[in-house]
Amino acid sequence: MRQSKYFFYTLREDPKDAEVISHKLMIRAGLISKVSSGIYNYLPVGTRIIQKIENIIREELNAAGAVEIVMPIVQPAQLWKRSGRWEHYGKELLRIKDRKDNDYVLGPTHEEVITDIAGKFLKSYKQLPQTLYQIHTKFRDEIRPRFGVMRAREFVMKDAYSFDADLQSMEKSYEKMRDAYIRIFDRIGFDYKIVKADSGAIGGSVSEEFMVLSEVGEDKLAYCDSCSYAANIEAAVAGQIRQTDQQEKPIETVETPGCKTIEKVARFLNAPEDRLIKTIMIEADKEPVMVLLAGDDTLNEIKLARKLGAKEITPASEETLSRLLLPAGFMGPVGAPDIKIVADIKIKEMKNAGCGANIQDKHFINANYPRDFKVDQFFDIRNVKSGDPCPKCGGSLNITSGIEVGHIFQLGDKYSKSMDAGFLYTDGKKRHFLMGCYGIGIGRIAAAAIEQSHDKYGIIWQSSIAPFKISLLSLGNDKEVIDFTEELYKKFEQADIETLYDDRDERAGIKLADSDLLGCPITVIVGKRGMKSGFIEAKIRKTGEKKQYKIDDIDDMIEWIRDYR
RNA sequence: CGGGGCGUAGCGCAGCUUGGUAGCGCACCUGCUUUGGGAGCAGGGUGUCGGAGGUUCAAAUCCUCUCGCCCCGACCA
Fold it and tell me: Does residue A262 reach within 7 angstroms of strand B, measured from its CB?
């Protein structure tokens, strides 16, 4: 590609509305431009990267036996009413009306449509298993889009759906996709982990996420030092905590003026935070519930909602608190009003704990379960912390951040049942499909790749997804140099090496800086200085290593470039 | 949704307090010089000052409303 005839423009300064490095670099290197909040253009170079990623995915999914289709972005509300998600999906589902005032949605995902397709065409167990996929645009009206294409509202996703006749076969289809995902992310060159996950709005039983390890990741994940256990913090369970064998002491009331936070109470009583009971009032689908946690733990709302079977967990309103006569900052389970009390399993083992006394400026010390207070149910509802025991081997858990680039689910019959989609089994009776669904965020992969591979000069692409394999630069406007670079360009084209040839009439510094910013794996530099001594130079972006090739040995260079991975 | 911030040239910003001809850097266009790590000189402004309304002789600037964008929060009461 001749840069003078192409569409590739860089920015010298960081855009002011970008926070994370990948977002800044994607804009500066001219890969994307913003249209609106969470809505982006992919400019030509960005499009090439996206296509590279898509092709890797296509190759691996096709190899795994999946079949590509395209489904509509605009979907009739009727389908969503059939699955029940018209009511349940919430505000992320963008609802629109057509000229006849009929309801439609912009598809945030495609289970409804695909299940409808399967129901129409897959009539017999003999047609199963079947896995279909598409690479297409989704729209989710995110509460807060951010980090450029990392969390966009409109984005391109590869979504695949498997249909099986029985459980065993469904698990097999799942494993096949999982293996394909591993090959995909290995080829892209990610440092990633596969973690157990909560299946969220999509539903289903088993689900795993592919997490690219990165500080800017919006997900927290826990993984074990000594075994293979890894889980999203939303789903991570901590191992059993050792029981203490302390003697129970008599409960006492203490004055704790103004100590409204665990931190203050701990300091005031000179007790460690994990010896206090943290009391949180929430409303689970409007029902007030008192939640107890160890003072140094944090509530995992997703676990709690799941355990309570609640759709929505919200902090209790001021109104509810005053109605129940609960003083914020001094609440506790001892002498609590007659409401549901749930506690983290750790509370059961806590001895002589401190907790709010339900009276302004007073706390109890030496509270003990069940002697001093009741708990209706114990659950694992806390977020695991660094250092917690691993549930699998008892080793120590670490917490790190990750970018979720892939998510795979075993859905079972969640959608096939609600939408009544099925096939005839060997016994001639109708059965619902057992489904799996499998997503990969394409744009997010590009952003994650940049987060994992960049330096102060710009992006450093892995060869597998680089927009071009090489940048070819002619430095200066010496006729000899330009003629030779033109020749070289032709040779690269003939050799099928993807080349971005910077033939602009720009100074050396600009060309070199732009080349580093875009970050193609190799930069080939032709200049007067080298030509004079009979050499041209090839620089490896990743290492900065420079290789010299004699002008007569161009074929060697071409061979080396071809083999470079 | 709650809190905070910002909208002025393609990009990054100043000007607003105290109303009086719309500016700076980069980019861009023309010419000359320069040419291996973001050149120099000379000339050129490409702008509904986010939008609407109001106050005023006069509004980028003051007031009201509105739209857009960004950040933080929406577990620790």
Answer: yes
Q: Which residues pair with A39 in a beta bridge?
A: A36
Q: What is the pLDDT of residues A50-83, one digit of tens each?
A: 999 999 999 999 999 999 999 999 999 999 999 9
Pick the CATH number of A252-379 from 3.40.1160.10, 3.90.960.10, 3.40.50.1460, 3.30.200.20: 3.90.960.10
Beta bridge partners of A539: A523, A546
Nucleotide B35: closest residue by CA–C1': A476
Strand B nucleotides where any atom sits below 7 Å of a protein CB: 1, 11-13, 25-27, 34-39, 68-77
Sorted by where each begins, the domain ranges of chain A are: 3-237+399-450, 252-379, 468-563
For the cut 90, the answer to whether the pLDDT of residue A87 exceeds it is no
Instruction: Compute the average pLDDT of residues A302-316.
Output: 80
CA→C1' distance for A17 and B68 (Å)? 13
CA of A532: nucleotide with nearest C1': B36
The answer to whether residue A205 scores a pLDDT higher than 60 is yes
Judged by C1' against the alpha carbon of A383, the nearest nucleotide is B75
Identify the architecture of domain A3-237+399-450 in CATH.
2-Layer Sandwich (3.30)
Number of helices (H) and strands (E) in chain A: give both, helices first: 16, 31
Which tokens in the block code for residue A378?
A: 């114990």
**Global ipTM:** 0.93
Q: Are A188 and A424 spatial neighbours (Cβ–Cβ below 8 Å)?
A: no
Q: Which residues contact A180 (CB under 8 A, 6 or more apart)?
A: A60, A61, A63, A64, A66
Residues A227-247 have pLDDT tens digits of 989 999 888 887 766 666 678
Cβ A338 to strand B below 7 Å: no
**CA-to-C1' span, A503 to B73 (A):** 49
| CATH superfamily entry for domain A468-563 | Anticodon-binding domain (3.40.50.800)
Q: Is A200 left (phi over 0), alpha (psi -120 to 50) or beta?
A: left
Q: Which of residues 285-324 of A touch strand B (CB under 7 A)?
A: 298-299, 301, 313-318, 321
Question: What whole-number percentage of chain A has pLDDT above 90?
Answer: 64
